[in-house]
Amino acid sequence: MDDIEILEKLDKGQIDFNEAFTLMKKNREAVNTAKGHFLKINIKDGERCFPIVIPLFLIKSGFSLGKAIVRLIPKDKQNDNLEKVYKILEKIESRDIKRLVDALRRCRSYPLVRVENGDTLVDISVI
Predict the structure, then answer these.
(1) Torsion, Cα of 74, 79, 83, 86 (10° steps)
(2) What's the predicted TM-score (pTM) here?
(3) I want to staple 121 with a disulfide (CB 3.0 to 4.6 A). Which of 44, 66, 67, 88 is the partner?
(4) 66-94: pLDDT as tens digits
(5) How many whole angstroms separate alpha carbon 113 and alpha carbon 104?
């Protein structure tokens, strides 16, 4: 029984608050037991297939490392594209990346994005 059904039963008086709370708590425990561990990116271009698997724990570290590396590049070596990347990275806070990774960890195997363009397919999922 999902949370909506529980709340409807509570609203109709079929169950009391404590029973509804217990049922909803069980739903949370069930969600927390199934966890994603990797971000899987499959890129298929015609006959070629490029699978990429990234452990979720590396995403936050990789983001922080990327921010640091971009800051270390001397101004005379930067171009317009790098400046755009720098501006984007500066607007993204580390706590937001942490929240994103935490949310992905709570996912079971779940497809996130699927893009097709002619013979090219990009499929991103949590596994």
Answers:
(1) -60
(2) 0.59
(3) 44
(4) 888 888 888 888 888 888 888 898 899 98
(5) 13
